[in-house]
Amino acid sequence: MKAILCKSYGPIAGLSLEEVADPAPGPNDVLVRAEAMGVNYPDGLIVQGLYQAKPELPFIPGFEMAGTIEAVGAEVKRLKVGDRVAYFASTGGYAELGIAPERNCIPLPAGMPADDACALLCAFGTSHHALRQRGRLKEGEILVVAGAAGATGLAAVQIGKALGATVIAIASSDDKRKVALEAGADHAIGYDNLRDELKALTGKRGIDVVFDPVGGDLFDTLVRLMGRYGRYLVVGFAAGRIPALPANLALVKEFDLVGVFWGSFTAHEPATYAANMQELFGWYQSGAVKPKIDGRHPLSDAVPVLERIMARGAVGKYVLHP
């Protein structure tokens, strides 16, 4: 099969498309022929050695795959050859074939595009876990979404509306703000004059929940606008700088700083993860959420696609096709 290989930690440009041996499923695994492979910001971090985990080299990057089962292990009970599934794994996604434990596979509803299924895993899964479990977002609360035109940001906008929040989207251009409004945001603002615009929208109440995959200077502004008992969700640091919290702000404002690590969540709380996915797929079927697939590219274009995402040039979700 063809796959993207990371042979050494370093620049994304060092990834290569190569012919490698087809994988074989273990007793509890399934072998999936890819229809789509999701591309995510953490993929770029992991190949540069900047992620929380460092796989043994060489490895195939990629967290997400959706496709059709070609073979099953001897102990597989629930799934069969020909079933269409999506799954999340720590590595192995950028390949024509993937191996997944049966317990990690989500059967796809009839007619569901593989591209959308990939988007519902890491991007929507992260945002859902952030807002549902970590942020405890309630109906009527004010949610501020930073980086609102990215895959996780747009997911947070839609999930926030599904949970009944008033959603304020922050995005860097008119086009991106338009996309956020089309996704359901009640307001969309830019980074210029951010403090004054947010104060005008939130008043003395302040912000109930912040979804922040950006970090950097944005964090320094938003923590000063938190409302009492607010929850600030630390999702990532796309701006490049990991900010520090002046502890006196948490004391005076009585808000929570909450970490969000979806990969750890899926490993430690598989039952809750499964329930989250069931809710997300249900919302998808009802039309409450709809991934925006902004780019579809062949597997051979993995390097430029990933570089664009890392440069924050992407709007919505990007997927690779075999």
Short précis:
GO terms for molecular function: oxidoreductase activity. With 322 residues, this protein is of the alpha/beta class.
Question: DSSP helix count?
Answer: 10
- Fraction of residues in helix: 25-40%
Rg: 20 Å
Low-confidence stretches: none
Biggest sheet character: 7 strands, mixed
Could you report the average pLDDT, rounded to the nearest whole number? Answer: 95
| Quantity of strands, as a count | 15
Strand content: 25-35%
Number of self-contained structural domains: 2
Helix/strand order? EEEHEEEEHEHEHEHEHEHEHHEHE
Description:
- The protein is of the alpha/beta class and 322 residues long.
- It folds into two domains: 137 residues, Quinone Oxidoreductase, Chain A, domain 1 (Alpha-Beta Complex), CATH 3.90.180.10; 140 residues, 3-Layer(aba) Sandwich (Rossmann fold).
- Helix content is 33%, strand content 26%.
- It has ten helices and 15 strands.
- Strands 3, 4, 5, 6, 7, 14 and 15 form a seven-stranded mixed beta sheet that branches.
- Helix 1 crosses helix 10, helix 2 crosses helix 3 and helix 2 packs across helix 9.
- The chain is globular and about 60 Å long.
